[in-house]
Amino acid sequence: MSKKPQEEIASLREAVREHDRRYYALDSPTISDAEYDRLLARLRELEAAHPELDSPDSPTRRVGGAVASGFAPVKHAAPMLSLDNSYDEADIRAWDERVRKNLPPGETPVYVVEPKIDGLSCALTYEDGRLTRAATRGDGETGEDVTANARAVRAVALTLTAPFPPRLELRGEIYMTFADFEKVNEEEKLAGREPFANPRNCAAGSLRQKDPAVTARRRLRFTAHSYGVWDAAEPSTHREFLRRCAEMGLAANSHESFESIDAVVDYFARFKSRVMPALAYAVDGLVIKVDDFAQQRRLGFTARSPRWAVAYKYPGQQASSPVLAVEFSVGRTGAITPVAKVEPVFCAGVTISSVTLHNFAEIERLGLKVGDRVLIERAGEVIPKIVKVVEKGRRRKTVSPPERCPACAGPVSREEGMVAYRCDNPSCPAQLRRTLEHFASRPAMDIVGLGEAAVDQLVSRGLVKDAADIYALKKEDLLELELFADKKADNLLAQIEASKSKPLDRVLNALGIRQVGEKTAEALAERFDADGLPAASVQDFQSVPDVGPVVAESLHAFFSSAAGGGLFARLRAAGVRMPRPERRAAAGAPLAGKTFVFTGELSAFTREQAEEKVKALGAKTSGSVSAKTSFVVAGAAAGSKLRKAQTLGVTVLDEKGFQELLARARGS
Ligand code: IVH
How far, in Å, from the CA of 82 to the mean position of ligand 1? Predict the structure, then answer.
């Protein structure tokens, strides 16, 4: 019943493409990330075993070579124009009048309305259904060649589903969700780098990376909104274009259509109040387009922009206000973040009274002093930021970095080369609060009901001094707090109980070890069980894919410290079981799911070294051969195991074959 490799590879490629499309184009995945990773790992493994079936369009090839040096210029086949903008209903109505006046008598336009996603424009060229080039907008005439990076973006289809035009230059927006943006910034901060100011900058920075592997991790999205070249029977309306995109497997913009400008104006208000707040990404307005392409051609372009489209933007995204003070807030790792307290001002639907300044370098960059009037911007639904100082205060006060921790008055330090100042007191109550909030948060132990307010009360009352104390809480304790009436206390206790069976990777993330986020936690849980972690050496940690020397040191320091190691042991004693997560071969593990048996003597390495090598690539090893064994590696003087492999039809590799397999698996 087993399929031929060729067929299995083809069907796996197809399946992975389909799941990418469901995830990114349709936003409705039908399998878990783990199942997806398994498909990809199986595909990698088959491709490693059958190099003759290699294809540049395989989804495993998303991360290819690095960008050699800078980005080559690309001249766009047709200029990438921009849109006229307006914040004003009267302007939009005037635009509609102009459109109707320029159409033949008796013809009325249908308007297609799409969200104006706040990302960056990108042109994707497909030749015979294959992605051959990706370019940024640049100055509209010439952009930058970002093909290697765009290929690493799962949301960008590498191949099109037929029928497709022989040549297509598709244009769309590359962007990022708020959640993914925050995740990236969290990691940037942990690594001591400057966080990105907003998802747009983050998306742009991620697409223009030297290393496509970094782009791949950033989970960029793509949505098509127009095209530059369509070398075949073109669609005749914008709606048909969007439909054709979807049929080719491309993520196309969501849209509505209307027959009058009144209906568009109504929708503009409705979108703002009902749709926009629920969106996972930043939108700064709507784009209104004439649907019919014949009408579009008739309307034509001005020098800069089409007459057949206009951007209707949401106003009030910027406001100015004086800075009353700069306060310092202490994060989970002790990093001290300056926060500007401003006179409350209404901006983009909310009243803003404090704005994060991220770090002290930002204060310097802005040249900000207390008393200055600043311009505040709230793009989409993102956290507000200070754009610039608009007016210097008359009595200005310089902001100096804190000498003592604002929460515990403990000493403060600044690591060499790092932007952040930190509180060095490990039992600082502010750090404890943030640590506990992180511990209970959704991607960690997911204890609903243990948010900021509850943590605050538990810490102030001295009921919780570290995460393990959470598991000793009794109903009587909770009832003492204002926050917990009878039922609520029961609910929280049930949540705490349920969290005891959260898998090891979540526990590792919850512990908030420096440099260890969700991804690293997953990789660690693949490799170690709860018993293995405290015993692991720096070298052991470093043998985990993606764990470098700095992270390995940080892990080792954590588990061997009285505080870290002690906390871990107390959590286990409190009944936190930390099971290994089910499954799963990380997408980055090319030999996942494979079992190796070594027999005889190898010349280039010892048996242990050989075993380590395949384990590092995700495989298991075993001492005995069975029908489930994937490969037997037979060195000199191999005996009974080799014979058993031959009888069972298990693939046997000699040392040379083994080394080739390793090289292929690593290089894939
Ligand atoms: S249509 C001739 N549709 O806005 C312009 N653009 O100022 C054709 N954008 O560079 C573009 N959402 O990056 C179009 N639904 C949408 C859009 C959209 C965002 C961006 C695009 C363009 C800029 C125009």
Answer: 7
CA angle 270, 276, 277 (to 5 degrees): 110
The alpha helices in 461-606, defined as continuous H runs, are 475-479, 486-499, 504-510, 518-527, 532-535, 538-542, 549-560, 562-573
* Residues forming a β-bridge with 221: 175
Residue 316 has a pLDDT of: 52
| Residue 130, C-beta contacts closer than 8 angstroms, at least 6 positions apart | 56, 57, 158, 159, 160
Same domain (yes/no): 198, 122: yes
List ligand 1's pocket residues with C-beta within 6 A.
Answer: 81-83, 114, 116-117, 121, 137, 173, 225-226, 253, 287, 306, 311
What's the gap in Å between 64 CA and the centre of ligand 1?
29
Of the residues 3, 101, 116, 397, which is catalytic?
Answer: 116
Residue 300 gets the label, from left (phi > 0), alpha (psi -120 to 50) or beta, of left
Residues 581 and 390: their CA atoms lie apart, in Å, by: 52
- Looking at the fold, whether 304 and 321 belong to one and the same domain comes out as no
Domain end (from 573, 608, 626) = 573
* 475 has catalytic annotation: no
Substitution site in 82, 83, 112, 121 for ligand 1 pocket (most atoms within 8 Å of beta carbon) = 83
CA of 83 to the centre of ligand 1 (A): 7
What's the domain count of the chain?
Answer: 6
Pocket test for ligand 1, best of 85, 86, 87, 116 (most atoms within 8 A of CB): 116
Q: Whose CA is nearest to atom 6 of ligand 1?
A: 225
The ligand 1 atom nearest the CA atom of 137: 10
Contact 121, 271 (CB under 8 A): no
Which residue's alpha carbon is at the smallest distance from atom 13 of ligand 1? Answer: 121
pLDDT at residue 234, as a whole number:
94
| Alpha carbons 170 and 234: distance in angstroms, whole number | 13
Query: What is the C-alpha to C-alpha distance for residues 530 and 609, in angstroms, rounded to an integer?
Result: 24
pLDDT at 510: 95
**123 plus 250 within the same structural domain:** yes
pLDDT of residue 64: 47
CATH code of residue 342 = 2.40.50.140
Low-confidence residues in the chain, pLDDT < 70: 1-2, 25-28, 33-34, 63-69, 315-317, 348-349, 379-382, 416-417, 582-588, 668
Give pTM, 2 decimals: 0.53
Mean pLDDT over each residue of the chain, to the nearest integer: 88
Task: Give distance in angstroms: CA of 537 to centre of ligand 1.
Answer: 52
Report how far residue 426's alpha carbon sits from residue 189's, in angstroms, rounded to the nearest whole number: 19
Residues 90 and 194 in one domain: yes
Q: Provide the residue range defining the domain that includes 368.
A: 317-391
CATH code of residue 613: 3.40.50.10190
Element (H, E) at 37: helix 33-49
